[in-house]
Protein 1
Amino acid sequence: MADTTPLKAIEPIARTSVTDQIYETLYQKVLTVELPPGTKLSEADVAKQLGVSRQPVRDAFFRLSKLGFLQIQPQRATTVTRISARMVGRARFIRTAIEVAVVREACKVLTEADFAELDAILAAQLEAIEAGDKNRFHALDDGFHQRLCELIGHGHAYEIIREAKAHTDRLRLMSLAYASRTAFEDHREIMRYIRSRDADGAADCIRTHLARIEDTLAKVRAENHSWFVEEE
């Protein structure tokens, strides 16, 4: 079992935002595998390291467990969940169903102003790639997909995507060291089809883009087998 990773104390914060800040701190550490799958966490230890009481830590743990990032077992250590290939497959299914509908609608309704905004996100993605900043690229990647949903008037669809893709985000971030350029080129191709109002082409492109998680899953699993759930 992996050892607990030390956490840096956070600055004093307003009581109403303690849980949110603890949640975001732990979410990012799980996402970047700074807290690898299998890591044991203690409410008391986390509260001490972050300089807060145990209740907001307990609340943050619960929220992370609902995302599938933590496994809470009464009278036993809370652990960072191992990655489930089955859940990755389910997340991909949900994302594909939604995002195919999103790009088809985008082909109908996006304006030149919308294209300019999305192009700016792509330009920022390229800058992140050239700077070797995979965390920024990951945030901009999410931003691209989120703005597509918002610009067609269905921002709520991204909330469903965000919850589903939590199961794939650790894999995606690990892959960006070698796959960010491919993801960027996929985004440019998606935009090319949307701009030309080619709904079938955009749908095929988004399917290909989201299917790349399968190759990432195989690569990461081969390199870090202990991070994965043993499934039949």
Protein 2
Amino acid sequence: MTKSAVPRYIQIHNQIKSRIEAGEWQTDKRLPAERDLAETFNVSRMTLRQAIQTLVDEGILERKVGSGTYVAEQKVSESALGMTSFTELMAETGRVATTQLISYKFTLPSNSEMAQLNLSENDEVLVMERLRLGDNEPILIERATLPAKLVSSFSRTDLTESLYLTLEKVGIIPGRAQQTISASLANERLAELLQIKRGEAILNVRQVSFDQNDVPFEYVRSSYVGDRFEFKLMR
């Protein structure tokens, strides 16, 4: 996608994110008022709000009622050198992995999906939500988004049961992944799907997967049961 095809609010999103990463705006630092930011970036306040909301959705910014928008506290962030499938992870612990498909649809991308996958607002995506189990015990629920142009020629079974093997058929080899990990409490829907009590601890992981050419091809948001899974970060 050419630079001109990138929506203006995504460009603003990227610029604000770069300033935060450069240390210009630090954790718990309140951002300038919307009016001032809109003037700085020479955009309407509506466009500026779209950019801000996308950053809020990604956990980079947070809104405080009656106070303003702040740089969120930094979460654990890890750049993975490779990716291991859920089936392989379960096999390492002697468990049998199974998957239950919750939803599967082709649709237009959300603001966050456009930003993470470098898409335009007219690029269709596949969004599928799956419950992953080990020995029939729910471990996590994941919502995966992929550009429709990469997967439209494959069947639902191909994509839900062996996604990475299916993608290899069109030359997409998983390379690295960027992960952001945070903690929260399970809402009613998550509690029901994961068979836990509402308010129990869960781990939230946002991951952008890149292919061998360092092009993003998958954006996944997962919620893990806190006491059924652990992450090992290698440095």
Protein 3
Amino acid sequence: MQKIILAGNAVTAHILYGYLEDDARYAIIGCVVDDAYVESGSFTAVPCVGLSSVVERFPPSDARVIMAAGYDQVNAVRQSMFERLKALGYIMETYVHPKANVLTKSPLGEGSLVMPGALLEPGATVGADCLIWGNVVVAHDAVVEDHCWLAAGAVISGMARVGRRSFVGVNATIANKVEVGECNIVGGAAFISKCTKPNAVHLARSGEPFRCTAEEYAKYFGV
């Protein structure tokens, strides 16, 4: 049984804990956050420690990390935690729920998570530190680059590409061969039929570009 530290102690960590506590492959022994957030406590009985003390409390030789951070600042916070934990010597566990359908032969990126009901078709590629939520479809020969978040029910159609650090909302669809630029926010139920520019926002009503950048949108609307 692999010992696991969850990187995060908020909503995403709470959800992942619910999956992992019923998975006989894993034993959750704690969670880690930036030192400033230790006071907020943990969502479970496992101890929560700050990044400055995690190596002493849970040595990298004894446990692996599952990324349980959210998508704050268009996944920038998640990427930062991922990279700092790797620098401390931790192996970032790639987690596939037993009810996920991973049919691609391409290795999943380090530290990525695939939730129940998700389908990765033959030829699909998923980069490092991606979160593929339930019932997502990553179709044949599609590419999801590093540090992306695909919310439940999203469809990445065949030969499409999602650029690094992008967020794709619930039930959004990326059409065949379309490339979503890096650091994009694609709103829930949006249909993207044309390639997008980096740092863009596309919302559901029309899928047209929003007037502000993705970073500005995240700052004022909390994504």
